[in-house]
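Sorry, explain these tokens?

***
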Amino acid sequence: MTAPLPFPPESEIEFTAIRAQGAGGQNVNKVSNAIHLRFDIAASSLPEALKARMLALRDQRINSEGVVVIKSQQYRSLEKNREESMARLRELIAAAAFVPKARRATKPTKSSQRKRVDSKVQRGQTKAARRRVRDD
């Protein structure tokens, strides 16, 4: 079983309530239901290897200063938007934590090489048999 992913404490994450865009009538103009989540990767308590992998990600949510900015405005509730932004940050950290298995180069076996050449020769003989026979 693998170890759980490290997740930064909430004290390292900055939340800002902002006004959501889009439909909502007059209510959208007076209520701040959207959330801006800001997370500074370099200043966080994440392991150094994970920080480096996150900064190396080509993700549009990570700005040039190494700060993750996630805007969540899907729900009409501030708490639901806050939970969704946290879930998206968790997904981003999980994507950075995934290390693909290194590929080891292999060579084809002698038998497989021989079978390949033999099948090519056989195919060539089949095609040669289709040609017209020349009369000399």
